[in-house]
Structure formats: C-alpha cells, structure tokens
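User: quick one, fold this
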Amino acid sequence: MKKILFIFAALFAGFVNAQDQKLFSIDDDAVTAAEFKAVYLKNRDIGKNIDPKTPAEYLELFINFKLKVKEAQDLGYDTLNAFINEFNNYRKQLAKPYLEDRSVDSVLVHEAYSRLQLEVRASHIMIDLPGSALPSDTLNAYNQIIGLRNQVVKNGIPFDVVAKKFSSDGGSSEKGGDLGYFTVFDMVYPFETAAYNTKVGEISMPVRSQFGYHIIKTVDIRKSSGSVEVKHIFLISNDKTEKEKAESAAKRIEEIYAKLQAGEDFDQLARQFSDDKNTSEMGGLLKPFGINDMMQEFEDESFALKNPGDYSKPFKTEIGWHIVKLVKKNPVPSFDEVKGTIEQKISRDSRSAKSKQVFIAKLKKEYNFHEYPKRLTEVLKVVDDSYLTGMWDIEKASKLKKPMFVLNGQEFTQQDFAMFLTETQKRGNKSESVKQEVYAQYNNFVNKSIMSYEDARLEEKYPEFKMLVQEYRDGILLFDLTQERVWNKASQDSTGLYEFWEGHQANYVWPDRVDANLYSCESEKVAKKVVKMINKGSTTEQIEAMFNEASELVVVPDSGKYSKGDNKSVDQAAWKTGTVTIVAADDRYIVVKINEFLPSRNKELAEARGLIISDYQKQLEEDWLTELKQRYTITIDQDVFRSLEAELN
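Assistant:
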C-alpha cells in the first residue's frame, strides 16, 4: 500500500513556478498551471492504456491529492520525529546516485558483463581476520597465508592437503578448498577479481577480503553456462516428513518415472502428481536460472540435460524428489538486457566504493579543495592515549581554531575536527597508535565533510532530484495521515466495520457451491469400482487401501468446497447431495461425490473480512474527501484551466 501511495505522490508532485499563472488554490496555498501541466504530461502516456484520464479528470485527482497533503501539513505531520526520520532515510537513498561517479560505474558495469561470459572454478585457503584487526594481527595473518602459499608453491605440498589442514573456511576445507564454479557477483569483489585474474593452475598472492586473507588456485575457466529453463515434477520428502509418507514419495516418483518412460506426457503427469502447486498447472515450468541460483543437485541435473525434451532420472535433494525435463538452454543475455540488473548489483556490492573514491577526487577539484597539513600536526600534539579508551576531552584542543582545509571557500577548522574526534572515539579502540588512528580519522573527516557539503547542495544543483525528494516527502505525509484516517480505522473499528457489513450484505454473497470428494483414477474400470465402494459407504482411507497397495497413483483423492469454475470435473458433475459422477479428464477418470449442495447465501463477516475491510476503507476515504472539501476553500481559475485544457488535448 505504501508503494502505491508513493506512486500516487509521484503522479502529483512538482515544482511551483512563482511566475506562472495560478490554476487553483486551497485556502491560501496556490498551485500553478505549470505544476499541473508537468504532472499531466508526465503521466498521460503511462496510464493511457490502463486508465486514460482527461485533463479535467486529472484536475479532480490532483485537487484531492493536494487536499490531503494540505491537511497533513496543517496537522503538523511534517514536524513529527517519525516523519523526519523516515523522510531523511528515503532522501539518503535517493541521493546515492548523485554522490558517486557514474563513469566509474560504467567501467565496473562493463567489467562485470565481461566476467559474466565466463565461469571460474577455484579453490582457496583462508586465514580469518576481522576488518578491525590490529596491525600486528594483520601482519601475523599475512605471514601465515604467505607461509601456506610457500608450502604449496615452493615445497610442492598439494593445495588440497594444505587447505584441509589449515584453511579456516570450514565449508570448503573438507573439499580441499574447492568452491566449485562461480561467476560474477557470486563472491566478494576482491576474491572474484583475483580468481578471474589468476591463470589456470596458478596460485594468487594473498588477497584481503572482509573475511580475512585468501590464496586462490584457479582450477578452470570455462564459457558461461548461461541459464537453463526446465520443467519439474516434485514430491515432498524432507527431514520433517513422516516415515510412511517419505517411503510413499520414493515409490510414487519411481512410478511417475516409469510412466514417463512408457511415453506418458510430462506436463500431464506434473499437473496430476507434482506437489509444487505453483508450477504444476503449467506442466511444472520453472523460471530460467543460472549456476548458484538453485540447490547444487538440482542445478547439476538440469544443466546435464543435453537436448530439449530430455528428462532426468528421479533424484533426491534435501526437500524432496525431483524429475526435471529440459525446455531450453539460454546463452548469456545481451549487454542491454542485463545492464540494469548489473547496475543494481554493483550498487549493493563492495566495488561501488571505487566510484565514491573517484567522485571525492572530482569534488576536491570542482570546489578548489586546499588543506594545511601542519594544522593536523598541531592537533596530534593534543590527542593522547585517552582517545583509544574513548575518554579524550575536547577541551585539550580548545585553543586550536585554525582552518585545516577549505572547500569552495568554506573553512573546516581544527575545532570541527576535534568535535569529529569526540563523536567518533569509542571505548576499547584496538589501534596501537594514537597517531595512526588520528590520521585515519582525519581522512574520514575530510571525505565525510566533502560528501556532506555536496549532499546539502543536491536540490540546488539538480532540479530533477528536488522534484523526486518532494514526491517522496508528500508520499510519506499522505501515507501517515491515510493510515490514521482510513487503513487503521477500517481494521480496528469493529463497530463501524460491522455496521458497514450489515448495510452492504448484498455485496458479499456465496454463489451455489458443493462440498465434494474427488478421486482421480488411472482407468475407467478403477473409477467404476470406486463408485461401487462409495455407494457401499467406504471411506477415503478404505478406498486408498484397496487400490494403492502396489502404486500410489492408482487413486489420488482430494476434497473441498467448490463454486462453478473452481474445478472442471466438479462443474461437469450433477450438483445434488449424494450423487456420484465419473468425469474423464487428462487421460484420468475423476469420481466426483457430492457430499452436500450448498445453496447461495450471504457471507458472514468473518468469511469476507478482507474484502469488507477494503470496501470500508474506500467508503472512509470518500467520506474524508467530502469533509476536506467542506472544510477548505477550493478556488479554480476556469479561464486558466480552459486555456491549459486546450493546449493539452
């Protein structure tokens, strides 16, 4: 719902040009023709195939939107801490693309696409090292990993032997460090880069990641497998499955496989027997996937199939039994097809830091950054070991007030840096050198100051960013007020909801239905025998025991309450309590037993609560808008609108 509101806000937010003609006003708040025109043109093409709106219809929606935003502001919603915090979080996200170098992103995108063409198989040996490790610990870990590399390279000890004995990556060490095949974004960026850049058979120099130090042996590089599209038949059998059901699943999958070998249709068997109800109606069709997207066993079996139409033998994974059939194999998509996806992944990946580094360097040049290194030396003299315990007192720097650097004419002083040190110091800082820590914090201070300065100027530099921020601001305001006035009230006001239901019962009606048992039989002969047993009063359990001793697929039962259109077999049966009908469907024979005919009736509140709440919300919103229109004065300049309407039509 919140996303919908943001879209709605995006439809109706814009810039006010003080020189433009006033189109309408809500009390003293004016809205210009230019603002409305920009909104209308922005969204006219988007909605023309779904719900086209004339300028007059848009105007009504626009006024309704502005009414709600007006009330939210009048009620002070934009001053609440919850709103301010949420808005600031959204603005931070919106600002990200403006606070990085797009040209570097382009290089990274092309690098990632180039790597997407290949798959690397590599093994590694890792020595754990946290990101905040002491310099001595870092040196120790580096020496350890170099020592292990020397054992392999110089002493000739097999890589897998060293990995099993010394690697701290428990998941791969048991396999001699083998990580299998992977492609771009499957590993952290430094590791990925080293694996792709190391020749097959060679061992990299130590590579530092957030997990520690690695040495990497590139075992193989092959062309990308691309993606594969398969259909599957799935029977649930996991560690929570009862023993009898697990044994039954194992028998049933073999029987299904035998039917496939006998020439029966895969799609039909999937529809009849697969436990994956999300795909069974489509013959078991899954979305295309690449390596490391699915369980390893499932991927191995799927990619091993050679030709469309080939299917696997039954195989087991941790969730159950599968048979997969190859539909087609897809090569790596074109650059244009995956460019957007790659950009999104880079934005969440450690490689995105590269663009920020280049971006800061450009800002320094743009804003004539100039620093005074000697001023840092003066600060170092007043920062003692107490900083490493989080107890340093800023008063020790009270006399230091000179500028440390200048950015676009704005000075950042020693006092500013001292305050930054106070805010960032923490107890238990493991740095061994105060000097080293202060130098590191100075670099952080410079970078954060530059980025903060640029961030504060985004609305001024980029009009489209200003518009986007306004859209989100109005969207959050509208959400908060609508939640209070409409959504929460509809779900929490039990008395109002009951009264609404009582007054609109004719809108919530069950159609004629039947309570029925269904038995899917492998042949007409079996179906006729099932009918006889039903007529004699046999239970579903007794029927299954009679026919399914040798195979779980002879009779497959089901039951439920059905309306017309819910089930084709039930639709064809005689809708009368006690009747039993045989219906042919998908080369099976369905026995339909009507336990009870349920005539049409009004739904109880509990039976249609979700739909009733939704309708009640619509009523509350309509009432709210009526109230707002009575409370606020809306004045439309018809001459301005007619002129605008003629231009837009």
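User: anything notable?
Assistant: Residues 1-19 have pLDDT under 50 and may be disordered.
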